[in-house]
Amino acid sequence: MDLVFWGPWAIGVVIFVLWIKRPISEFRQLLKDRAAQENAELKSTDSNSNEQR
Amino acid sequence: MTIVQNILAVTALSWLDGAILVCFFGVIIWIGSYFHKWIKKPDDFCVAGRQLTPFILVATLAATNCNLYNFQSYVGYAYREGMSIIWHEWTGMMALVFAGIFILPILRRLKIATIPEFLGQRYSPTLRALVASLWSLRFCAWLGGVLYLSAQVACVISGFDDTGPAYHVFIFFFGVVTIIYTMAGGMWAVALTDVIQFVFLLGGALVMIPLIMHTVGYWQGMQQTLTAMGRQDMLNLVPNEGFWNWKGGIGISLLAIQWACTDQPMLQRAFSANSVKTAAKGMVYAGIIMVPFAFIIPMPGIAAAIKVAQGTMPAFLEQDNALPMLLASGVIPIGILGLILCGLLASQLSTIDSALSSSSTLATLDVINVVRKQKLTDRQTLFMLRLMLLLMGAVMIFTSYLAKKSQSAVDFYIAIVAVVDLPLFVVAIIYGLFSKRATTAGAIAGYVVGMLFGLLINFHNYLGSAVTAFVDGVFKIYSYLPLLGEGVTAANASGWDIAVIGMIVTAVTVPVVSLFTKQTHQAQVNHIWQARHPTEAEHKQGGAFNVWPTSSKGRVCIGTMFLGLVIFFAGLVLGKYPDQKGYSISRLQMRRFEQTAMLIPPEELPPAVSAESRRELFDDLTALAKNTDQSDELRKPLADSLVLRMQNLMKSYCAMARANPEKYSDEYLKEFNSQLESVQAGPGRTIRENSKAGTLAFVGMLIFLFGGLLRIHYD
């Protein structure tokens, strides 16, 4: 087995798999946080408008 | 190109590969436009609102660092010189770890978006505006090289002539796509498209490289073939000869530290991290994860050298064509080629988008907003950021045509860095962070004088005899510098020597001028010094990171890093001393000669040269390379007769090229003449390279990285 070549390649595959999963899950969390933030801002704008009326 | 086009005519991209590429670009543009609604303030555009999370940060840092320039240029240099080009990447990894631990925490704590902004805080707004203006232009110049490579790859693989209209179409297409999505979504679009591009890039590399290496028997097969050909020195990590020799290793280490500490695209991402600790971790992880990839990336270049020497792949003039030629040679199946191209081009886009974003940030925040008496509102700033991006994109397209004239994208990049970046590193990092005594006048003088020296040395041939005499004088003084300067003159100086001279000149000018000029306001300096320590807020949020560790475990990690560095540099210096010296033609010269000689296929050789006599010459060169046991007395007559035969062959080539200008462009004649001059310079002194040097340097690197990885967990 040509370890000098396949060794670094295999490490690269492991890193590749890990580095797909984690950024994607972080990005999903970012989107959720963003959506929650926008909802909170909308509610706050609505309640301000109701108070003004 | 006629020869290449004929061969590539049967291996042009299929409709499936083309469809994959079109979909890819469509997705990238859509992502850019999606993030348009996230951009509400300048901070959102420039640093993603400082909200990037750790693994997105690592992916975007790694994507910025690894691009087509890495792949294509490294493969090209590996084709010419061997594995030693790997230090260009590995020293970069080490520098990322170093900067992530010692430099970045300070800069991140200052809540800056650009290095010139730091210069404004440490010195003055004048220096900030000066550096930012020059840097914006420097990015555009460098981006020109990046864009040129993209178009080059696209042309060769698709079978189009890179001197024809297709080249221009590719330049404009790639340039415009990147400008559109970066203008729309700012750093958010840049960071998230980087993650996707990172996936395509690494995925493409993990598929492409084994497919290419299969044709030469992977590492073991390659090693056996090279030994049989007398070319095993190509696998030497720290050779004595060539551009990427022991001195190149030291030179690129300096450039790497400078890059990791001051490179705006890299740092702008690190500044986007959601805490100091995330920023430090991001840099360290981004450095370490790319180490195995960096090892396998140059291998296709050596595979190309073997295939050309064996006659199974046509020789080519520009070394940067090594990778495209391999891809177009049919080793990659249809469909997979499209995915790999996505990966390679994706890597280019990730570099272009980050540098465009950086240059527009520099121009807007550090030049326009500093020079204007009335500061721009948030809305005006956002508009200006986008306008500057568009302008910088236009300059980038223009400079891509200049980069094409340079022999290699790596050479072009090093020439820019040596002139512009190294003086900045000295002023900003060495004196800015570590010397309270450096004044604004000293910093400006150091930066300007350092750059001026770099420009004079690079262009002295065009500036008159007085400048040439001055430059000769500079090199005379430089030649007294132990190790690096020995035997260096203006005629034989490399890019490394110019880089070191620029650094030394700046390093001397700053303290000398500072001695006689007004000191910087103490509050400014104290503000920078306080940034070495975590704030109360950092401790409360759990994102604190000390530059100097408070725990004993942390200090042991620092000691480990230092030990690794010492071993690493010892390995580089050891490369200066070959295992065996004597009278012979250097293997590097033999390889370069053969690769140039193979540019003419057997059926097109000049009348005075037969295919058999050329083959005999190659075989005799191989025999000389493999025979390391003979004494100089026996070797000398053989070496001298071979030099004569090499000269005669190149003279015939030159005569043929001059007689057929419509078939052999100026580049061919230039290459033949260059080889003739090199051969006429006579035999060299290295018989066998130092085998221990590379191992020592590699082990030193691993120890350093290990120490760095532990350091971010033990504070």
What features would you describe in this structure?
The complex is a heterodimer of chains A (53) and B (715). Chain A is mainly alpha-helical. Chain A has one helix at residues 3-52. Among the domains of chain B are: 2-8 and 22-36 and 44-404, Sodium/glucose cotransporter (Up-down Bundle); 580-688, no CATH class. Helices cover 73% and strands 1% of the residues of chain B.
CATH superfamily of the domain at 2-8 and 22-36 and 44-404 in chain B: Sodium/glucose cotransporter
Fraction in helix of chain A: over 70%
Oligomer: heterodimer
The profile of the biggest β sheet of chain A is: none
- The global form of chain B is globular
Find the biggest chain interface. A-B, 22 and 30 residues
Helix and strand topology:
The complex is a heterodimer of chains A (53) and B (715).
Chain A: H1 3-52
Chain B: H1 2-8, H2 15-34, H3 42-47, H4 54-65, H5 68-81, H6 86-102, H7 104-109, H8 115-122, H9 125-158, H10 165-214, H11 218-228, H12 246-262, H13 264-271, H14 276-289, H15 291-296, H16 299-310, H17 322-328, H18 336-371, H19 378-403, H20 409-434, H21 440-459, H22 465-478, H23 495-515, H24 522-530, H25 536-541, H26 552-574, E1 580-584, H27 587-597, H28 611-626, H29 632-659, H30 666-680, E2 684-688, H31 691-711
Antiparallel strand pairs in B: 1-2
Helix pairs in contact in B: 2-10, 2-18, 4-10, 4-13, 4-14, 4-18, 5-16, 6-12, 6-14, 6-31, 8-9, 9-10, 9-17, 9-18, 9-19, 9-20, 10-18, 10-19, 11-16, 12-20, 12-23, 12-26, 13-18, 18-19, 20-21, 20-23, 21-23, 26-31, 27-28, 27-30, 28-29, 29-30
Quick overview of this protein structure:
Chain A is mainly alpha-helical.
Key attributes of the depicted protein:
heterodimer, A: 1 helix, B: 715 residues, mainly alpha, two-stranded antiparallel ribbon, 31 helices, 2 strands, disordered N terminus
